[in-house]
Every structure is written in C-alpha cells, then in structure tokens.
Amino acid sequence: MSKPTLLLIDDEERILRSLRMLFFIGYDVRTTTDPDEAIRILREEKVHVIVSDQRMPVMQGSELLRIARETSPATMRILLTGYSDLDASIASVNEGEVFRYLMKPWNAGDVKKVVAEAAAIAEASFALQMNLEPALEAAGIKPRVLIMDNDESTAKTVHETLGDRCEIVWACDAQHAMEELAKQNVSMVVSDLMLGETNVDYILKTIKQLNPQTQCIVVTSFSDTSRLIELINQAQITRFLPKPVSKGIFARNLESMLERFHLVRSQPVLQKRQTVEPISDPAERVSAGNFIGMLGRLRSRIGV
Amino acid sequence: MNSQNPADESIFSLVTPIDALSPDIRLEEVTKHFSDPRNAKLLSLPVVENDRPIGVISRYLFMNIYLKHYGRELYGKRPLREFVNNTPLLVELDQPLAEAALHVAANMQFPLTEDFIVTRHGRYLGIGFVMDLLKAMEVKMRDNTAKLEQAYTQLKSSQLALVQSEKMASLGQMVAGVAHEINTPLGYVQNNVAIGQELFSQVQIMIADYESLLVMLQDGGTDEDRVTAQLQKVTAARNDANAQEMLGEMNGLMADSLYGIEQISGLVHDLKNFSRMDAAANDLANLNDCIESALNIGRNMLKNKVEVVKDLAQIPEIMCAPSQLNQVFLNLFTNAAQAMDAQGKLYIKSWHDATHIHISVADTGKGMPAEVVDRIFDPFFTTKPVGEGTGLGLAITQQIIQQHGGTISVESRIGEGSSFHISLPVARSGASAASGIETCAQVPERHI
Predict the structure, then answer these.
(1) Interface contact A56, partner B, CB < 8 A
(2) Is the CB of A57 less than 8 angstroms away from the CB of B304?
(3) Is the Cβ of B236 closer than 8 Å to some Cβ of chain A?
(4) What distance lies between CA A37 and its chain's CA centroid?
(5) B119 close to B91: Cβ distance less than 8 angstroms
(6) B179/A82 touch (CB, cutoff 8 Å), yes or no
(7) Half-sphere exposure of residue A134, counting CA atoms within 13 Å on the CB side?
(8) Which of A172, A219, B163, B200 is at a distance of 20 to 30 A from B217, taking alpha carbons?
(9) Average pLDDT in the A22-27 region?
C-alpha cells in the first residue's frame, strides 16, 4: 500500500518545513505557501488529508477548504491556525466543514494522531468512490428532528421547512431533551447553546455517541470562539448559525442538513468522516457520563 | 440685611425697606430725612408716587443744590419733584443676582452717589446698597470658580482614564494579533524540538549499536555470526535514507527554531515596551525604532493587506516618551490599514533638518472628505461604526505630539488616500548621546 498523501498549506515556510519533518515517515508530504497551487494539486492528485493555515494572503484557509470540499470531497480537511477569531471558526464549520480545528502551537503527538485518523478515513472514502448524489430517502422511515431552543421562531422555521417530511420534537429543557433522545434516535438536532439555564454543549458532544448519523445545527447568539472550536472537534456540529439568523438561510441549511443525514445513513464511511474527539473538559465529561447513564436507564425502562 | 452667605440668596436679602419720599414735599424737608440716623448709611433716598418709584435724590445732588449761592433760599421751598434724578437704578425683586449686578454695574456712576431701588412688579419695595450687591456677586463668583475648578479636576481625571482606556482598547486589539504572531513561531519551534527529541533518541540507539559493534570487534572472541548481524544492523541504519535526510534537515530546523525564538523575543520585547504604563518616562530614543516597534506590534493587522514602503533616513535621537510615540505610530498605521478596503500601500518616511525631525505616514486608502479632515483631531469624533472606535485615537495622538513640542497635520484626497505629517523638535538643549553626564532636555510634563 502506498503512503497517504498529505498536503500542507501555510504562508510561513518554517511551519511547512517543520510539519514536513513531522510527517516525513509514513506520508507523501506536499507543501506549498500558495493556495492556488494547493488547489491545482487537489485537482490533479489524490490527496488524503489537507492541513491549512487560516490567515494567508490571497485566500483564507476556510475558503481554501471550501474549494477543497468541492474539488476533492474525499480529502479530509483540517485547519491549523494560531488565530482564533469567531468569523474564521464559523466559516470553517459552515464552508470548510473541517474535520478538526487545530491551534498553533500544536502538540506533535496529537497532530500526528489526528492526521493518521484522517488519513485512514480518507483512504476508506476513496476506496468507496464517494457518491455524493442525494441519497434516496428510505421509504417508511420519517427522519426525526429534535429542537433544543427556547426561541419560538426557531421551532417555527423548522416546522415550516421540514414539517411535511419529518417528525419534529421541541424540547425546552435538558430533561425533556433527554427523554426525547431516550425514546428514539434523532436524525437532526437544531440547538441553541443555552437551554434555559443549562449549557447544552455536553449533550451536543454526546449525540454522536448515541447515533453517529445525527447532524447537528447550532443556532445561537453566543459567540465564544474557544467553545465553538470544541464543538467542531468534539461534537462535529455541521452548521453554526449566529442569531438572529435570516429565515431563508436557516431554511436552506435545514434542507441541506436533512439531505446530509440521508447521505450519511446510506454511506457509513461518511459517518466516520464526522468522528468526534473525546470530550476534553473534565466537568463536561462527568455531565456527559451521567447523561449517557440516565439515558440508558430510561431506554431500558421504556424498552427501546 | 447681613446675610451669612449672599451667594445662596436672591435680591431679597439685599433689600432695606426705607420709607420713600413723596415728590410733592418741599426740597428743604429732605434735610430731616437725610439726618435721620436710620438713614445714615443711605447715599440716596427713593422718591415714590402711587407706589411707583419715579426717581432718587442723593445726598450728593442735594448738597450741590444747597452749596449754590442762596441755594437753600432759592430752591428750599420748591417741590422735590423738580430735583430728583428720574433715571434711578432699578432692580426687580425676582431678577437673578448676576443680571441685577450686571445692570447696576453698567449704569452706576462715579463717584458712587446713589443706591438702587428694588421693585416688585414695578412697585417700590426698598433700597439696596450697590456695594452689597457687588459683594454678593463676588462671593457667588468665587463659589462658581470653586465649582469650575472642581469640575475641571474631575474632567482632567476622567480624561486621563479615557486616554488610558483608549490605550487599553488599542492594546487589546493588538494582543489578539500579537498572540497569532507568537503562535506561529511557537508552533514550529515546539514541533521542531519534538522532532529533534525523537531523532535524538534514534541517534542514541544508533550510537549504542555502533558501540556494541566496536566492543565485539575489539573483543575478538565474539562469534562471527553475531558480528555479522550487528554489522548488518549498523549498515542498515547508516543506509536508512529517511534517517539520513531527517538528520540533514534537522540542521535547518534548528536554525528555524532559533529564528523563531528570536521572533518571539522581539515580539515580547515590543509588547513590553508598548504596554509600559509609566508613560511619562522620557528617554533618548530614535523615532525610527518607535516606527519599527509599532510596525512589529501591528504586523498582523497589516499583513496580507498592506504593503509597507519604508524610507527611513538617519535621524538624531531625541528626548521623548517612546511608549507614547509607539502609540502614536501604531494608531496612524491602524487607521491607515482600516482606510484601505482592498490591498494598499503604506508609505512611511522619516527625515530631519536643522531643527526638526519629520515623519510622514501616507496610505493609499479611501481618503476623507474635507468636513472629516476638519474634525479629525476632535475628541470623540469618529467615522467608525459604534463600538469600534472611541474617537479618541487621533485626539490623543495630537495631544502626545503637542506635548513633545511638535505638530501633526493631515492632507487627504477622496479615493487617493491620506497623509499625516509629524514634526518634532530635535532636543532643545545641547543634550546628546556624546555627553552622557549632561542633563537631557526635558520634554514638557504630561498634562493629560
């Protein structure tokens, strides 16, 4: 088996030299400071993993990764940046759909592990000849959408957009959300980051463990970059929409995420592409553990 | 009428109710009124008809008449009406003290011969003494001055706080940028060290293999096969292209790391200089260094967007507050970057003549209309969206430059860009680096 190809883009040559050496053994490493050159490589060669800086002249990393998504969908996308601004992280979710958002300076071992994981998933993706045509909806199964938001307008838009095709449940507190999650798996979660007084990050981070097919949209007025980065890496949220969000944009994203759900369900390798990192925050880990435990008890009681 | 604190009171406190004279009495009758001890303090007596004051008769006027030859005989029997000054000083009771004082001061005559008449809705109320009114005014003014001084002190301290918060705001913006600047070199330095560490342990193993081979060969008694095996192991390691290349690359990575560490130290140094809170500290400094320092701090904001074109001449050092001038330059660079929507150029030039050092900072941004240029140095004037600018940046910039005895001016053309020009005097005394003992020229103390 040939070595997986790793494409590195950064406007600082020293970063490229350094990373090239980190991956020298085990990878075919390509490096460039020029995003256009990177796009050419993506078009002409089989690239397993692309690791891009965010702030570069000519093009932002999130924009490059968006192009990479279209040019080479099987390639796994990772952002490696020293600059954590909110706009960049939002763009990396919504446009770049990154697998990981990594910060400079990085831990060599961690980055190696992430890239290895990404390379393996990419290999599987290539092997499957990814078919990104919208999958046919499986007959007889109605997707289930869980809303975790006290904001009525959120629920209204979800109902209006997906009401005809999906079963929609609206939870106004964490307890209710848990009961709904216990009853049956959900296809999509539309959530604010605060549900009443509860920070629901830990629920979002556990959802992929309950059902890796679940697509997660965050609609919130919170703007905390480090929290968002955690949600990218540990919850693989697929959309982050800052409130107030225009109805049109919201509806479009709901549609495309429903499509994504069908796609992921029909192609298990796509589930892998949304693999999450373990929860890093100790308190959240405890909350998540309790949550899973309670959910398990609830499920056995209901007999799911 | 002796009020404790006239400043707090109105005209009312100044009124002395005096029985007014009728205009129909004979002039000679006025004598007894003037000699009445109750009226001893009065300069003049009010003349009132039907409750309305029609004039005053002053001791001065009265005596002038009587001093004339046969004055008493000629005029004594005539009615008072014929002699009164019918344009007396009139003050309405509810008139503000200041207004009354102004009116009285404007119309009183010298020598002071008359008191003023106080009326209420035009009706006679009593007499007021001019000196009392002026004294009351003076007390009031002193009180006002004290209040003004207090307000001024408060204003000064809040201005200081504002200046500080503007500095903190621009610093806050910078810190985010500088963090990125540091994270990048920190990223590769840390990674290079990690690679080096791993490579080092491999090299240690290699050396150990070589050593055991050496021991085997020296020993002589070792089994031929073991020696061959060890030889093969060592040869394989030697021929490992990867290891060879990595070792070769390691030199470059080490050089990169040293470069990165230098970058980081430079940034930390700049940041430290920048945030120095003892802003009044004066030092002999080269403005080119201040410019470089501000460019380093602001690099992240300028990078990818602005091409910096420097033309820095050799200029003499001057006594200045370097951290304040850093702030000035950073502020100008930030504004320039913000004025450029797309890619642009920032021209920074320094030169000097016999008396002044000149710095110009010009951008190729969108420029400003004349009405903006006119107000650009006004405190709180900003063209930035709410919350983005304090509107103090350039006001403070100007203040700092003026405190250094310099000037700052701006020219701007819509669509072409803006250009700021700063002139600062070269050290005014003979202070120079050559004469270390000599006390240096003092830059004026900060008054902000």
Answers:
(1) yes
(2) yes
(3) no
(4) 26
(5) yes
(6) yes
(7) 7
(8) B200
(9) 93
What's the angle, vertex CA A164, arms to CA A158 and CA A165, rounded to 5? 90
Report CB contact under 8 Å: B187, A82: yes
Distance of CA A3 to the CA centre of its chain: 26
Supply the ipTM of this predicted assembly: 0.84
Instruction: Evaluate whether A210 touches A184 at the Cβ level (below 8 Å).
Output: no
Looking at per-residue confidence, does B273 or B409 come out higher?
A: B409
User: How far apart are the C-alpha atoms of B172 and B185, rounded to whole Å?
Assistant: 21
CA–CA min distance B336, chain A (Å): 18
pTM confidence score:
0.67
Partner A contacted by B152 (CB < 8 A): no
Mean pLDDT value across residues B76-99 = 89
Q: Which residues of B touch A56 (CB under 8 A)?
A: 304
Residue B81 C-alpha from the chain's centroid: 65
Confidence tier at B433 by pLDDT (50, 70, 90): very low
Nearest-by-CA chain B residue for A17: B253
Residues of A in contact with B249 (CB under 8 A): 17, 21, 24
Q: How far apart are CA A42 and CA A93, in angstroms?
A: 20
C-alpha B21: how far from chain center = 62
Return all residues near A187 (Cβ < 8 A) that are at least 6 apart.
Answer: A143, A144, A145, A166, A213, A214, A215, A258, A261, A265
A25: which chain B residues are within 8 Å (Cβ-Cβ)?
242, 246
The token duo for A176 is 């209710």
Strand B356-363 to B344-352 pairing: antiparallel
User: Residue A75 burial by CB count (10 A; 0-12/13-18/19+): exposed, middle or buried?
Assistant: buried
User: Assign residue A177 a region: left if phi > 0, alpha if psi is -120 to 50, beta otherwise?
Assistant: alpha
